[in-house]
Design goal:
heterodimer, A: alpha/beta, Ubiquitin-like (UB roll), Alpha-Beta Plaits, Rossmann fold, 5 domains, 6-stranded mixed barrel, B: Rossmann fold, de novo design (two linked rop proteins), 3 domains, 4-stranded mixed sheet
Amino acid sequence: MADLVKITVDGREIEVPAGELVIKAAQDNGTYIPRFCWHPRMKEVGMCRMCLVEIETPRGTILTTSCTTSAAAGMVVHTASETAKKAQEGILEFLLINHPLDCPVCDKGGECPLQDQTVAYGPGESRFVEEKRHFEKPIPISDLVFLDRERCILCARCTRFADEIAGDPLIEFKERGNYTQVQTFPDLPFSSYFSGNTVQICPVGALTASAYRFKARPWDLRVVESSCSHCSVGCRIAVESSQNDVLRFNGVDNDATNRGWLSDKCRFGFEFIGSENRLRTPLIKVDGEFQEATWGDALDLVAERLGAIITEHGGEAVGGIGGARGTNEDAYAFGKFMRGVVGSNHLDAQLDDGLDARFLAGVSPRAEIGDLDRAGAILLWAPDLKEESGSLYLRVRHAAQDRGTRLVVAHPRRTGLDDRATHKLTYRPGEGPALLADLVAGEGDYAAVLETLSEGPVVAIVGRTGLTEQPELAEAVAAFALSLPDAKVLPFARRSNTFGALDMGVAPTLLPGRATTDDAEATAQLEAVWGPIPTHEGRGTHGILQGLADGDLKGLVLLGADPMRDVPDGTLARQGIESADFVVAIDLFLTDSSEMADVVLPAEAFSEKEGTVTNLEGRVQKVNRVVTGPGQSQADWTILDDIARRLGKPLAFASAEAISKEIADVAPAYVGISWELLDWDEKDGAVVPYGAAIQPLIYHPAALGKKALQAMSQKPSSGALALHLARTLYDDGVLMRNSLSLHALAPGGAVYLHPEDAGRIGVSEGALVEVKTVDAALRLPTVLDPSLATGVAFVPFNQPWTPSLGAALSVVVAARKEVRA
Amino acid sequence: MSHPQVLTARMTEHPTDSHTLERYEVTGGYAHARRAMDMSRDEIVELVKASGLLGRGGAAFSAGLKWSFLAPSRPSYLVVNGDESEPGTFKDRQLLERDPHQMIEGIIIASVANEVHEAFIYIRGEYPKPARRVQQAVEEAYAAGYLGKGVFGSDYDLDVTVHLGGGAYICGEETALINSLEGKRGEPRIKPPYFPAAKGLYMMPTIVNNVETISNLPHILEMGSDDYRALGHADDCGTFLFSVSGHVTDPGNYELPHGITWRELIFDVAGGIRDDRALKAWIPGGASAPWFVPEHHLDLEITKEACGKAGSMLGSGAVVVMDETTCVVKAAERVVRFFAHESCGQCTPCREGTTWLEMILRRIEDGSGRPIDAELLLDVSDNISPGLTWPPKQTTICPLGPSAVSPITSVARFFKDELMQHIEQGGCPLG
């Protein structure tokens, strides 16, 4: 903590940290100094000059910017002296002379710092009678953002954000003086995953979002805070709606998760909520065609068919996949439904993403996001965070760039953080274990890497870099990381409420509250509330699909899950769903998977229901109801309860909040968590186990020796390349498919090759090549990617109009045979 | 009248080859840099302090004192500011073009004094010939072993890089120059904390000195501080290069001691006003300087102190003389237009205010002035330079904005009637 010093602001003595900028010190003590360019999350530039104040110094009183002046003991500041007021008024007049004053048709009107500060600090009228500055407007600077250079006041918030925060310096000032303007570089759009943040921090209406332009007036918006559902970080957001339509997400600044920033996927990924394609009524398949049905008929049919399978083959003939897209309350209801009503342990919220549920739920000590700010070193052996978790990427970037935190990145391809990494270890998929063995041994070049990690605290973000990687590798990495000084692990899985669903026991090995199925005490406590639960060994998603394909399982419940697109082995997903006797899908949309179901039940989406979610730290946060769901859609838990009732074992929930109370009763790690707590005392959520609560599962990932690691290491078969199959921020997931601003931004199916490999194969950039795995054969365009190791083919997973390649390591890439006419 | 020539002696005596290494060495060149190699940092800094050498870029700050502020971290850099862009200033051009080795010798001395092993010469982009001559001289010095590895056979390494600007006046401001040298936009840095001697080029301690300042160093070593001081007048030590232009009979660069009067400079040295017209006003120290008029300032001594007290400055030594045919509104508009054009655009009052002032002045000159415009000009100026005081205060990041105010306050102070005539008659009374 910095020492406190006393300064005087407008005659009032306050105590502030020494060195704190005067503008912030004053604000924290109740004196607002007007500003445009200063933003608390970015470096000060003193450009707009709006925050001019008078400061008494030994050499007389000076007029200076409070955003560039650090508080020092005895400093006397006048923010509203005659001189300061005249200067501030003068600056506002200058800013307004060339501003178009088109507030009535400006998106920002009503929430505009230029408007608001003009009212408070500006001149009453303009003395400018000359012609204003003109530019062509608005110009699209990316697919998502428009720029109006006439409205722009050149505060450089957007350009600084792009450079300092996002690491995508794609916009910059051009020209000079009166013609200074923000611009992109020639033929290079502002194609940053974070471009939307510039719209939010623009203090005028210069930057507008294509998804929101002319949609609403700010004073008509209803604003409700919530927790973003697009990845497992759970960024704090404001959901803004008008007339029952969600129109905008804005980031809310908090230290716990996102500091106000959002990736564009999160910011603009609200469009699916109001999509025309949302399901509005239950659908029953008759002769291969869906027909609209009443809830009564549909639920009766589901209960009848599931009931028949249970009666004939036992509950263990039914599998349940999904639960990560909804709330904890929904997930808890799903677990209680599958185990307590159906009598099956075959349930899994992870869509064959590969990591052991017990590892994700129970690895200890587990890091919080805030630990990244206190870390001496960060080990990132996980997916490219820029592609999979934007705000976590920004947080690590900030630590490495601005706090000098040492960063080691291990990944098969370039990642968004390579430019800030102390060491980047690039390896071929399959050979990660050998790399880990080398790193542990710390010989040769690896000595320096080990040295980088030798001073703690160390935070390791550990996940699976791609879908062909050995699932056990992440645990070995975590075990290594935990051997480092003062180390904590942040387990990484991207899907939104995966961690919440696992904590609610939606995994074959887990019971609610981070207990395991082999924990007799936990089982007994749960049965006291649920009644008897099955004891047979449960299957995960891969096992369920395999079981269905093999005929061992007969029925399938899909809860917000689209295995056809989301499971790496798309072929198995198809076989499993096709082989099932009966499939019921509870979903927002008809997906590639729910299209194949017998009954589809329309569910409520994010922003249409209230509940809690849990992020990758274990932070439980509230999500809130902002609009009503379309048509007859219902919350997952009520649908499950209705089916359960028909199966003779009602879940007996009165409301989502009642479920949360039951969770707090039966789920050990969730004791003490209530909606009331999250709504009032813990606005940034509460990390479980909270207070005196204890989690039964402390999972120790197994450290593997050199031999075991070398044995785990794999190479592709002869003549094949090693397949790196990884997700991109935008893909063909169902929510992206129905967020029209974003779907077109998916990079598309392609195979990325090192130029040497491409040369050997005899293909150049853009050439179509034959890509063949044991599961599938595709024809994909080539992209040259020197960031790959040789011998590797990177294929982005789940791209529009691109079928699944499967997740086998070996892939054969060959030039197309010439077809002669 | 005759005055001792120091900086311009060689080019005057040997006009055809003063820029060559051969001529430079024949006339005693590089002897003092060699001597500096054996001096300590403190010795040189103290010598330069004692010489009273003031920076010749316009701010007239003690060069030795500036050096003594050099922060201890290393590497430190030396940047020679040859971005001579102040309208009316053309003295560095002559030094660069006609005696580059004199500057290079100064660079070696300044580098030793500031423990610099990497120096940069930043030359205005519109100076191709001076840049060529300097590049050539640097190459000669490298070839002779005076630069590069082991300067003069010592174990002291010094690399010198010549860099051309891209045509921005503001890059004469030292922090903008440093940004430009780093490959960034030429925009002044906010101060504090970034005084170059503390955090300059690449955020390392950096000394930025003007070409003329640096070129004085060999002479200070040669003469010693006392003799050097004696060349000047009281606190204005050494000689000073004046660039005299405008409506004089003999425009040009003149190396003079301080302490003569403006009357002597304009009428004796520069040959008086052309065609025997009457003197109307002059800019005493570059376009940023408030103007002087014959009624008040002709017999004023040319010293830093006297000019400052009279409300202006010697600045970069550019004297722009205007005779009675000059329309002061048009002259002011031209100067303000220059600053508006050269505003980097970074901070609001300069970016918006200078262009606004230019627009108002042009409107008045074109005959569309309104009675309130005289007051408006001053109030807009006041919002750039509060109080319209001298030396100026500023709402801006750097002094460029207030520079644009100087001609307006000058017109308001000395030519209010002519301004009002423009407004009342709907145009320029001079036709």
